[in-house]
Description:
Elements: E1 2-5, H1 10-21, E2 27-30, H2 38-48, H3 61-66, H4 78-87, E3 96-98, E4 104-106, H5 110-117
Parallel strand pairs: 1-2
Antiparallel strand pairs: 1-3, 3-4
Amino acid sequence: MEIWINPACSKCRSALTLLDAEGADYTVRRYLEDVPSPDEIRDVLGRLGLEPWDITRTQEAAAKELGVKDWPRDETSRDRWVRALAKHPKLIQRPIITAEDGTAVVARSEEAVRDALSR
């Protein structure tokens, strides 16, 4: 199990606290420092069953600067979104936990963290 976190994020810290309380075996990835490649982002999106726009933090300054709210949300634009997430990792929703069964969850709630632990 791996968790992508931003240490400044309270949701990330809460997820780590719960993982520790449950004795989970996991690896921390500080994705702002260890930026995922476009292929890694595509892999996680497949595991999540989501599209890149589903995990984009559209209220971030970089998102507003890029104008992502106005970008098309279709298959032909998918790579543009993925490249933007790789270039501006702060836009990636957090935390993301990759579960042992090959799936992943955006773990913004205790319920989502527990869901990842049960997989």
